[in-house]
Amino acid sequence: MRDKSGVLSAALSAGHWQRAAALAFLTDVHDDLDLLPQLVDLAMMPAWAAQARRAITNIPREQLIPRLEELLTARLDQFTDEDDDYFALWAEVLADAEAWTLLSQLVSAARTSPNLLLQDVAARVAESYGALITDAGERPARSPSIQCVP
């Protein structure tokens, strides 16, 4: 018999209904840090982004933030070649996880990118989250969404 993480990992990589069922299950599970790389990958897919972000934010912050930092650090170099949608989805993951320091690092990296679209999105994210990303401040009453930024 396979372990829970193995079954969930296979479901996240499978077809539509298996992925949807696994994501729905993970929104109620708080201990599956092993699946974080797959969840982040799904959070980069607009069709799955919201469900994946909900599953990600159910991981306890003290475990989540260091692992998100590892994943972000490993992928930061890709942002000069990636499009602005990928950056915006990463920003949403970090904001939903209240990883303000990491979001600040992401914005800083995008501001120095030769990709003008990334620079533009970085400016909008910085404007939306203000002091939270410059000071790694406290959680706002309601986290704004960069999708609502003009």
How is this structure best described in words?
With 150 residues, the chain is mainly alpha-helical. The protein contains 9 helices and no strands. The protein has helices spanning 4-13, 16-26, 36-43, 49-57, 61-75, 84-96, 100-111, 116-129, 131-134. α2 (16-26) packs parallel to α4 (49-57), α4 (49-57) packs parallel to α6 and α6 packs parallel to α8 (116-129). The chain is globular, with a radius of gyration of 15 Å. Mean pLDDT is 82; it is low at 135-150.
Mean pLDDT across the residues is 82
Care to count the β-strands?
0
Order of helices and strands: HHHHHHHHH
SS field, number of helical segments? 9
C-alpha end-to-end distance: 50 Å
Q: Tell me roughly what share of residues is in helical segments.
A: 55-70%
Q: Quick one: overall form?
A: globular
Uncertain runs: 135-150
Alpha-beta classification: mainly alpha
Largest sheet: none
Short key terms for the protein model shown above:
mainly alpha; 9 helices
